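seq:
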Amino acid sequence: MSLFILYLLMINGYGCLVMWHDKRRAKQGGWRVSERHLFTAALAGGGAGIWAGMQWFRHKTTRPAFRIGIPCIMVVNGLMTILCLYWLW
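struct:
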């Protein structure tokens, strides 16, 4: 159980860091992080970190795919986590 919590902390920290990195690259005009990579991080359990990064850095907050997609991924991930924990219990 503690490994699972550690994993969630790490993947969400990574998601937030990737949003910061992409925002910084957007301002500098450099190579950007692909949207596929951002959504993959969210699907891997980092949706809360991606969402927090969106809010803190004001990045991709007007794009419907992110404004709607990330919260939906968070809900699905939460439900799957609850079902898995129930099954393991």
